[in-house]
Specification:
299 residues; mainly alpha; 0% strand; globular
């Protein structure tokens, strides 16, 4: 007598597989008519070495996947039950979500970088410095003031932390205005490139805006909430850990790893040691590796 195996894993695979299959049937219509993601028919020049295929895959389902996730979640149809995969523990679920988010963000940032021309950061450093310095600072202050004004009983330090969390723009979210038919018609190519560069760089540079209020809350706010050291200790950690270790060391580490990876890939390609499939996924595997190495180094 056959028995039904309605277990969580089977339901998740059936749901996600069915969603991707059905969406694939109307993907071009949704992307071209509603500007929900990147258009494959874009007239924008393709990224070097066929890496545009990676960006197509990464950005193809961005907005639609978010909507589908909300529909399939326990708060709607309850088809996908992530808590069961975490052994019923909210702490385990939060940890899983954190590390998957780290992986997704790492891949996003690498794919944003490979879309830019060679030596773009060197050539456009002044424009980027303006956007990442005064631009992000202005966004942070304005957002924090808005949060402070709208949320009752919220201290200004907590509002600064909330504002810092939403100040950096996301490479996937910015993709809707830099790729596809809408971008080809309305957004100049140079503006597209600077938006991609800024959206990729500002995630790491959002750290100072976030950790400044967090350190002040820990060592100054509410009398230091039991922590000794005061503002001097808070600023010491902010300059030492946030700027010195987390940001500057990460920049050096990323530059070294990126340079070595580029040279190794060129070396393998020139000697025809690497096939097309491995070549196309090289950026993604590199992003996954670096994203995992960061927490190992305490970053």
């Amino acid at each position: 007598m056959p028995s039904l195996e309605v277990v969580n894993f089977n339901v998740v695979c059936a749901t996600l597989g069915g969603f991707i299959t059905l969406f694939g049937l109307v993907s071009y219509l949704l992307k071209e008519k509603f500007y929900l993601s990147e258009a494959r028919g874009s007239s924008q020049p393709q990224s070097p070495h066929c890496f545009s295929a990676l960006t197509d895959v990464a950005y193809h389902y961005a907005v639609i996947s978010l909507i589908a996730g909300l529909i399939f979640s326990p708060h709607a149809t309850n088809l996908i039950k992530p808590l069961e995969f975490a052994a019923g523990s909210e702490a385990n679920l939060n940890t899983i979500t954190l590390y998957f988010t780290r992986l997704v963000l790492g891949v996003q940032l690498v794919l944003a970088g490979v879309q830019l021309p060679s030596k773009y950061l060197y050539k456009e450093w002044k424009s980027l410095a303006l956007l990442l310095g005064p631009g992000m600072t202005g966004m942070w202050i304005c957002t924090s003031l808005l949060v402070w004004a709208l949320v009752p009983n919220l201290t200004f330090l907590h509002a600064l932390a909330v504002g810092a969390s939403v100040t950096p723009t996301d490479p996937v979210l910015s993709n809707s205005i830099v790729k596809g038919k809408f971008a080809d018609k309305n957004v100049p190519k140079e503006l597209q490139k600077i938006i991609i560069a800024e959206s990729g760089a500002n995630d790491g540079l959002g750290y100072p805006f976030l950790f400044l209020p967090l350190y002040l809350i820990k060592y100054v706010g509410d009398g230091g909430i039991g922590q000794t050291g005061g503002a001097a200790k808070a600023m010491g950690y902010w300059f030492g850990e946030t700027w010195g270790y987390t940001i500057l060391l990460s920049v050096v580490y990323g530059a070294v790893v990126g340079y070595l990876a580029k040279e190794l890939l060129h070396w393998a390609e020139e000697r025809r040691y690497v096939d097309r499939e491995s070549f196309l996924v090289f950026a993604i595997t590199l992003a996954v590796s670096v994203a995992i190495q960061q927490p190992i180094l305490g970053d």
